[in-house]
Structure formats: structure tokens, C-alpha cells
Amino acid sequence: MASGGILEGFKLNVSHQEIERILGEVEQWWESANEQAGIDFLPVAGIENFLMNDLGYEDMDEFEDALQGSFTDFLGAFPHIEVKEVEGKKLFKVNHRKPGPPRTLTVRVDNTKMLLDTTFLKAPDAELEIPSLEFSICAENKRHIDSLYNHLVACRDELETHCASLPSEDAERTEILKVVEALTGLLDVETPFDIVINDPSGLSEFQPSDKVVVENKCPTELVDRETETIKEEEGEDAANSKA
Q1: Contact 102, 222 (CB under 8 A)
Q2: In what order do the strands lie in the sheet with 144-147?
Q3: What span, in angstroms and rounded, lies between the C-alpha atoms of 89 and 201?
Q4: I want to staple 52 with a disulfide (CB 3.0 to 4.6 A). Which of 63, 133, 206, 223 is the partner?
Q5: Does a cis peptide bond (omega within 30 degrees of 0) precede residue 208?
Q6: Per-position pLDDT tens, the chain of length 243
Q7: CA–CA separation, 188 vs 177, rounded Å?
Q8: Closest of 112, 81, 99 to residue 12, by C-alpha
């Protein structure tokens, strides 16, 4: 069972896209300011006013409604963000999580409610696999927090958008549409299926996590996986060259 991750400390519904968007902006603001000025604790007021205007809220009341409370409370809801008060000014700091051992996380989805109720934090380097479809969502180089349901819907919608740019007679379009149809079918969960997360940094999480099976990877497994990927890429390059 996977436990002890930061999702367990989230007091807000981080599956909500707006909450994730605001959290991401806070982290980017702190990282940029920290790199440029080298200051660990930044004023809360600066980022609060910037976000209110940048995200299109009319006033602070509307902004706080979206946050389900004050901005300071919002920051304090996340265990990787420190908030303190110095001489009457509130300051905040974002702490980066340290990578853990590489691992795989496996969860069996039994029904649609489970897809909707399970929050998944996909680490920037993580890959999501659905073995029954022989399908995977590659690493996105950014963290993505949402319900499992929305993760699958977002992937399906991206594939549909890509298909729209392909000629109707294109063979690739036909194959992608088959995947789109299969992903749509999974959302109804007529048959239980597994979701497997290849998690090199150990930073991906599920919440709730009681049905998640965690398997740590040894270094030799990682080397073998990388070697297989390189061979596949070399094979594709060779085939393309002959063509």
C-alpha cells in the first residue's frame, strides 16, 4: 500500500483544475524569485495580488471563494509550503520533495466511481500504462494532479485533437481513433482493469492509496528497460533509413 505522500496532507480538492492551476502558479513564482534573488521566504501579498489579477478574478472575495478560504490558508493546506509571519508580514517558502527509489504503482479499477474519487499525482517523469490496451501516457515533464477519470479523459481528448489534423484516409488516424474508442469504453469500467505507473523518481501518488500495490525497482531493471528503449529507437531509425 502506498502511504505517506503529500496528497494525504492536502486539505483542498486538488483534483479541481483551478486549484491545481493556482498551486502551479505559486510554485513557479517562488522558483523564479528564488533563482533570481536567492531569497527563501517571499511575501505572500505579492503573489496573492498577482494571481488575483492574472487569473481573471474581479476582486479578493471572488478569489477567496475559488480558494475555499483565504490565500494564506490555501498555502498552509499544502505540506510542502511553509508559511510564517515576520514583523506583521506573512511569508511563504516552497520546499521541493526529494526523489525516492524508482518503483511501479499498480491499482486495479473496479468501477467508474473509483476513477472519479481517486486523485492521482503524476510526477514529471512518470509514465502511466494500461496493459489491457497496450497503451501508455508518456512522461509530460511537469506534475499533473487530477482524478484518474480526468487523466484518462484529457489523454483521450488530446488524441482526438491530433486526429482532427490528419487526413481521413490516414492509417495513423484510424489506429488512433481505435485507441480513443477504447479509452472512452474504459471510463464505464464494464470490466475491471489495471493502471500501472512507472515512477522513476518515486514522486507519484494516489489518494486514497489503500488499493495501490507498490513495487520497488532494482537498478538492473532500470538498465534493462533503458536498453530496450534504446534498441527500439535504433530499430525504428534503421527502418526509417531503409524507407
Answers
A1: yes
A2: 144-147, 119-122, 205-207
A3: 36
A4: 63
A5: yes
A6: 344 567 866 666 655 778 888 888 999 999 999 999 888 999 999 999 999 999 889 999 999 888 888 999 989 888 889 999 999 999 999 998 889 999 999 999 999 999 999 999 999 999 999 999 999 999 999 999 889 999 999 999 999 898 888 888 888 888 989 999 999 999 999 999 999 999 999 999 999 999 999 999 875 554 555 555 555 555 555 555 555
A7: 18
A8: 81
